[in-house]
Amino acid sequence: MSILKDLEFRGLLHQITDREGLNKKLSEERVVLYCGFDPTADSLHIGSLLPILTLRRFQLAGHVPLALVGGGTGLIGDPSGKANERTLNGPEVVEAWSQSIKNQLSRFLDFSTEIENSAELVNNYDWLGSLNVIEFLRDVGKNFTVNYMLAKDSVDSRITKGISFTEFSYMILQSYDFLKLNETKNCSVQIGGSDQWGNITAGLELIGKSTTDRRAFGVTLPLVTKSDGQKFGKTEGGAIWLDANKTSPYQFYQFWLGTADNDVVRFLKYFTFQSQEEIERLEAEVAAEPGKREAQKVLAREVTKLVHGGEALESALNITAALFSGDIQSLSRVEIEEAFKDVPSTTLEQDDVALIDLLISVGAAPSKRQSRQDIESGAVTVNGVKVTDLEATTKQLGRLGESYLIIRRGKKNYFLVKFE
Q1: For tag attachment on the chain, is the N or C end more exposed, with fewer CB atoms within 10 Å?
Q2: What is the pLDDT of residues 197-245, one digit of tens each?
Q3: How many CB atoms lie under 10 A from the CB of residue 195?
Q4: Could you give the angle at which helices 49-60 and 261-271 cross, rounded to 10 degrees?
């Protein structure tokens, strides 16, 4: 299956400037393509996964991906998809974030010099940072009319609320990126999210006006949405990040495991490298036996392994199994910290606190009367063991991982006690 047919099967082709011409070029030669990632935080989130994995798909098909970190454009701010002006970050912050994003991108693409289609990381600050303003306006800016720029959705949607010249100029800078990579890296394809269509086509216009012997193409990917209308990649705890310190592998795994039946097949196509036959088999499973949630388990396993690696996946699976079975004593210290990262917690300096009082201090019960009632009714487990003794103390109950005591009230309400 050709790369474009595979992308089409997966629903990843939203817009394309010249399908027939690009398909011919891809079949005849090794193509260089790029996608840009602006450093707007110290980590990418799963909204960036679609273009990252699309670059990977092109590399697996034999082509050369360039992952561009916007160290220069990150200092300006992209108005695309934004209702208001971005807050500008300082050069030191953007530089640090750029390095973090470079490290993340290197997990997904093969940068080995031993292969002919080795990926490459580039930073547009390397050429934007040294631009002369007068020369830039004369040589590049003259190719863009204000009317042309105003017609782009990214600009037009901001006109009524106001857009600064800074963000207004973003389109020209991204266009210059495409031209620069076209001239220096023989890059002929830019991919991006659907909100980047205006910026990408502006780059094609600039290349067309600057050279007569190079053809270039633009491809956009669909906006990822959930069938219930909720924003993809957001939870009550905030965004789902690719950085394990911001979103733990267990939390990451659970996010994908919770995918709705109406979304899971589409997400399998978007975010995994499962074959068409395997995806169709899982689609049939969803229709026949949705309660087994096999498709969700495959999705969660594959994406977690892609992003965090095999060991992190095994840990996430171990935590999931332990919490499902109640056998939390099998968890390591690190796994306890990861599994209960976001549950209510309290720290104790002494090791002889009555369980009745402890339930109140961690927020598991509002009063001693309720604490007694919960313990007597068997609604309280400590370290995976049901406790019905009203005289129980923390000294008697022991610790997990030498420093923790895990309380569960009912089926799903967990509380963490840490000992100094």
Answers
A1: C
A2: 999 999 999 999 987 677 899 999 999 988 887 778 766 667 899 999 9
A3: 17
A4: 50
Q: Are 341 and 251 in contact (CB under 8 A)?
A: yes
Show which of 190, 221, 252 is a domain's final residue: 221
Cα distance between residue 407 and residue 412, in whole Å: 10
Q: How many CA atoms lie within 13 A of 338 on its CB side?
A: 25
Enumerate residues 6+ apart whose C-beta is below 8 A from 353.
Answer: 361, 393, 394
Instruction: Please report where in the chains the tokens 């099998």 appear, as a residue.
Output: 330
What 229-237 contacts at long range (C-beta under 8 Å, 24+ apart), as own/partner pairs, is 232/46, 232/47, 233/45, 233/46, 233/47, 237/342
Give yes or no for a contact between 192 and 199, defined as CB atoms under 8 angstroms apart: yes
Q: Are 59 and 158 members of one domain?
A: yes
In the block, which residue shows the tokens 């394809």?
189
d(C-alpha 241, C-alpha 238), whole Å: 9
Pick 328 or 217 by higher pLDDT.
Answer: 217
- Predicted TM-score (pTM) of the model is 0.87
Which residue range(s) make up the domain with 273?
234-327
Torsion of Cα atoms, 363 then 365 then 368 then 369, to 10°: 170
> Residue 83: is its pLDDT beyond 70?
no
Amino acid identity, residue 174?
A: Q
Residue closest to 383 by CA, chosen among 365, 363, 362, 401? 401
Helix axes 294-308, 261-271, angle to 10 degrees: 40
Q: Considering its fold, how many domains does the chain have in total?
A: 3
DSSP 152-172: SHHHHTTTTT---HHHHTHHH
Residues 137 and 257 placed together within one structural domain of the fold:
no
pLDDT at 400 over 90: no
